[in-house]
Amino acid sequence: MKKIENNQASNFGNLNTDTLFNIRKVEMFEGSCFETTMSLHANQYALFWITRGNGYYLVNNQKQYFKDTTLLSVKPDSLNELRFGGNMQGYIICFTDSFLGKDYDPGSGYRFLPQIFSCLKEINIDPETEQDLLDITEIMFKEYKNHNMHRAEVLKRFFKIFLIYLSRQFNVAAQVSKPSRNQEIVQSFLTLLNKNFRSHKMVADYADQLAVTPNYLNEVVKKITGQSAGNHIRQRVAMEAKHQAAHPDNCMKKIAYDLGFCDMAHFSKFFKNTTGINFSDFKKTEVAFQPAI
């Protein structure tokens, strides 16, 4: 944690605990001014819901301001770092596809997940829905803490209800427009990338699975996201490398091997070209400023 003023601290904690599903209460005390770095597990989705307060958040060094009833959705392949500053109260909910399990199908309450997590964005919640979501969230939080019998099943059911209520904010948009073929290709590419970035590092690997040419995939992805498919691949690998490098016990050799690099020199060159900094320099900086949990 990087403190800017006074000695008050937030209670974000370690978001990587219980990676299938976890929920935390957020509290940044009034009058404090500090920043806390969020670190998500590679396969986690996250919902950051500010129920009260105001301040700002930094997403990959871009500042945005928030106020009461701000809900920020984050998908695994969209985030390098997220920092909060200001005073606020709310919740953080993290989960993976594995937690959703067999219920994760297009006809269920999860069918709006691609819209909710289509990009890093704020979701507007109407006043009527807000109270319902607060009640459901408080039940989930209580269940998560108590470790009662059938806890996971109860959490899964209430979370599905939570997402159904949240999905109602997207009903109008869903009726107005249907995703184009190109948008479907991009979404499928990003999903495949998040699952296979360790072993598949060429655009052709993903183009084959999507039954398109590499040039076409690059063109479509760049048109919709502003970045080529190749750049998305490099950034996703680099993001995971930086995430692992933040842990003091992870050396370059271990990280390179985990990410599918047989040659450490190749990995070192890749890291420098993609991030703009040498691996050793990056690791020294990250370890030096590791937050105290």
Quick description:
With 293 residues, the protein is of the alpha+beta class.
3D structure, described in words:
The protein is an alpha+beta fold and 293 residues long. It folds into 2 domains: 2-175, Regulatory protein AraC (Jelly Rolls, Sandwich), CATH 2.60.120; 181-288, Arc Repressor Mutant, subunit A, CATH 1.10.10.60. It is 45% helix and 19% strand. It has 12 helices and 8 strands. Strand 4 and strand 5 form a beta hairpin. The longest helix has 20 residues, at 127-146. 26% of the residues are buried. Residues 1-17, 33-37, 172-177 and 288-293 have low confidence and may be disordered.
The chain-level mean pLDDT equals 75
Radius of gyration: 20 Å
Find the CATH topology of the largest domain.
Jelly Rolls
Question: What amount of the residues lies in strands?
Answer: 15-25%
Number of helices: 12
Note the run of SSEs as H and E.
EEEEEEEHHEHHHHHHHHHH
CATH architecture of the largest domain: Sandwich
Query: What class, by secondary structure content?
Result: alpha+beta
Count of strand segments: 8
Number of domains: 2
**What is the makeup of the main sheet?**
8 strands, antiparallel
Q: What is the assigned CATH homologous superfamily of the largest domain?
A: Regulatory protein AraC
**Termini Cα gap:** 8 Å
Any idea what the shape is? Answer: globular
Helix content: 40-55%
CATH class designation of the largest domain: Mainly Beta
Unreliable spans are 1-17, 33-37, 172-177, 288-293
